[in-house]
Amino acid sequence: xxxxxxxxxxxxxxxxxxxxxxxxxxxxxxxxxxxxxxxxxxxxxxxxxxxxxxxxxxxxxxxxxxxxxxxxxxxxxxxxxxxxxxxxxxxxxxxxxxxxxxxxxxxxxxxxxxxxxxxxxxxxxxxxxxxxxxxxxxxxxxxxxxxxxxxxxxxxxxxxxxxxxxxxxxxxxxxxxxxxxxxxxxxxxxxxxxxxxxxxxxxxxxxxxxxx
Length: 212
Ligand code: IMP
Ligand code: MG
Description:
With about 210 residues, the protein is α/β, with parallel strands linked by helices.
């Protein structure tokens, strides 16, 4: 299992001016994790997870077709797209939608699963992929719901993890990209009020861009 997580590059306090969308870029106060650091860490995670899943499949005698990635929509969309392409193995993808932030809130109001959960996970090796571990309520709800189906293994992977004191649910993630401070971040799938998911780095918004 993973020990520790990646370096977030504290020195990178100046937002770069090279992004083409100046409107979005103008809302960014600073970049916390840049694109190169994300790409390098996602590649490391992909290699590590593939190795461990392959060992699991061999150990349990599960079929090669039995690896399922479950990204949490919508925040996990960018991370899973990159992560799955760093996993050189046969796998399938099922999505789960969870909502926790109504509108312009920056605090979780508790997690709710929307729509259908994937079925037929019994005996499969399941990896849940999300953007960030904050209060932990999202992953706790998902873990409980999916473990009822008795998968052969059930692991959690997040790109970002906020400090442990933020947790309201007792949940551990097996794989973590980066530990970050307690700041509200956007980009690489994470949104504020539905925007900035397409920003390519992990960034903190300017005060004036929040609450508009
Ligand atoms: P939880 O509090 O661990 O349940 O996290 C719930 C969800 O809130 C995550 O999956 C993210 O989509 C979202 N979230 C948590 N922290 C942030 C943040 O700093 N920026 C944007 N979204 C966040
Ligand atoms: Mg989310």
